[in-house]
Specification:
With 206 residues, this protein is α/β, with parallel strands linked by helices. It is 27% helix and 16% strand. It has five helices and seven strands, in the order αβββαβαβαββα. It has a seven-stranded mixed β-sheet, sandwiched between helices. The chain is globular, with a radius of gyration of 16 Å.
Length: 206
Amino acid sequence: MHIPSGASQTIDILDFSEALGRSGQSGGYDSTKWLYVPDFYTEYRYILGTRGVNPLICIGINPSTAEPDKLDNTLKSVSRIAAGNGFDSWIMFNVYAQRATRPDDMDREVNAQLHKENMAAFRYILSGVGEGVSPAVWAAWGTIIEKRPYLPDCVRDMVSIGREFGAHWLSAGRCSAKGHPHHPLYLRRDEKTEPFDIDSYLETMK
């Protein structure tokens, strides 16, 4: 379990560029295989994934306890779905970067600095996809997006950035009654991704 020590506004947060520059220096994992930013366990996480040129970029709501070589069940499912759909790697990203095993423990109000740096991380991920490859962004946050009113606006910022890179959005599994994309847990091992109309979905979130 990870329970935040307090609101993220009360802690020092590394800028994404600084955290990326340090990545791979802490040791304890193979930095030629893993992309982990920051590369040490702390109250937030920008990126966790494997390196490749055609990643499946999975978007959850917020990170939990996973680290390189210490994947939780959600990340194990993400890895299987990525491989089963022909991707050479996967990246776990989140709408909001604060670690909290229980989403009810997330910040009550959005931390503008943390969100800004998280969007810088998203831009970095999309820019790193191989030349000529449209970034594949898997909406996978489930109904948890209803936990905080600021989360849909965070997604809107991600969609805007995604347009700059020609990203296409995907889902996997049956959407909820309200149209929320399925969470990675409890998907079949052979579940296939399919196009997801992110713009129409966000219209329902107004």
